[in-house]
Amino acid sequence: MKNKPFKISMIIFLALCFLGNTNSPDSAAAADKDNITFSNDSSDFVLLSDIVPDAILEIRYYSTYNFVGERINSYDEPTALLTKEAATSLKEVSDELAKKGYRLKILDAYHPQKAVYHFEKWAKDVNDTKMKDYFYPNLDKSMLFEQGYILSHPDTQEAVRLI
Predict the structure, then answer these.
(1) Which of 95, 6, 107, 101 is nearest to 52 (CA)?
(2) Measured distance CA(110)–CA(108) in Å, rounded
(3) Of 5, 59, 85, 151, whose CB is crowded by the most CB atoms within 10 A?
């Protein structure tokens, strides 16, 4: 039972990862099937702390304690930005966990495009392994693209110059 809060945090983190990418054609098809409407503006997003004020926010991309080892571009504040639906769902989970004496701990909640470019630029520098022992000790960094941990985008060369 010692690892139960960690397991709950990881389940929530993984759920957010899967919920986070709503711009793919597959997600659009899924949205139509489930009667979910996605927005192209920020009006459907909220700060998680406004909905779940007792959540512990440890936004690692705002700090240097992440797999890159430096603050990630576009993380100007340690906030968790989510869709209203995701935040409301986490509120329900949080309320259930509170009854059992637990709180949510959020490590990550969104990836601005500049952050994605930052990850890709970092991944291409296979010699930058300062955080390997902490975050990917058994993974060869040169395999990040091949194994699908980080995806390369055709417009990245231009975008990397912007970050």
Answers:
(1) 95
(2) 6
(3) 59
| pTM across the whole model | 0.68
Q: 136: burial class by Cβ within 10 Å (0-12, 13-18, 19+)?
A: middle
SS3 call for 56: strand
**CB neighbour list of residue 117: distance below 8 Å, 6 or more residues apart:** 73, 153, 156, 159, 160, 162, 163
- Sign of torsion, CA 69 73 79 84? negative
pLDDT tens digits along 148-162 = 988 877 665 555 555
DSSP-assigned letters across all residues of 76-88: -SS--EEEHHHHH
